[in-house]
Design brief:
4-stranded antiparallel beta sheet, alpha/beta, 9 helices, globular, 242 residues, 3 domains
């Protein structure tokens, strides 16, 4: 969502509903006095949105934000991209999927209605050995698209290795938790993790130095970020030649 003010000092105030972030675009050209006024207005927006969410928990977050922002003086509400109404999900059964049989009960439990059509198409594309890009909205199940093929590879090849890159540690931490619980539901992979505790592991600046060698030796699904990839992995490729 984008809220525009009439002043040339600030082109827009950005409200990112996904990350709960409120901030400026082109903030480097905001003068001190105008910046303080806008910052105060943003604090009012955030506080009011929080109050509305508490009083109307079933109300749409987007509608709540639009209502609060439109009540402010000299502020217009615009949606970029334009707002679209909800649509019914379209599902596809995994009955004819080429994924490993031991994964099917787990995927069925995660998606009891079946996979979304974009998930099914992307997963089958990856399993067929194709380079695949999935560009969909937030919370549309993209994580499952790369998780299933990685676990499928582990089920079929005991030496398979996957590299997951994330821009932020928080995202990697969240995905590690989900991966770990999913692996515990696959008997063969659970047994493998019992002998290789770092089978799925994060590798970043917070990884204790005394654990890093064990991670490099055991890991088969590695979660890291671009900085660590360049500084801690590519420089020592002889230790991570897999």
């Amino acid at each position: 969502m984008e809220t525009q003010t009439p002043s040339h000092h600030c082109s827009a105030v950005i409200i990112d509903l996904d990350s709960k972030f409120i901030g400026f675009s082109n903030s480097e050209v905001i003068d001190r006095r105008f910046g303080t006024a806008v910052a105060f207005q943003l604090l009012r927006i955030r506080a009011t949105i929080h109050q509305q969410e508490q009083s109307m928990p079933n109300h749409s977050v987007i509608d709540t934000v639009a209502q609060v922002v439109s009540s402010l003086e000299n502020v217009n509400v615009q949606f970029d991209p334009p707002a679209e109404g909800p649509t019914d999900g379209k599902f596809e059964s995994i009955e004819g999927s080429s994924m490993h049989p031991s994964l099917r009960p787990v995927v069925d439990s995660l998606a009891p209605q079946g996979l979304f059509t974009h998930q099914h198409a992307a997963i089958e594309s990856v399993l067929a050995g194709n380079h695949t890009i999935a560009a969909t909205r937030t919370s549309s199940g993209k994580s499952l698209i790369f998780t299933v093929p990685a676990l499928n590879a582990l089920c079929r090849d005991p030496n398979a290795t996957s590299l997951f890159l994330y821009p932020q540690k928080a995202l990697a931490n969240d995905q590690w938790t989900k991966l770990y619980s999913t692996i515990q539901a696959v008997p063969g992979l659970k047994a493998k993790m019992a002998t290789k505790p770092h089978l799925v592991s994060r590798y970043d600046g917070n990884t204790p130095s005394e654990q890093r060698k064990a991670v490099r030796d055991q890991v088969q699904i590695l979660l890291t970020n671009p900085d660590m990839l360049h500084l801690g992995i590519l420089q020592y490729h002889h230790c991570c030649d897999r």
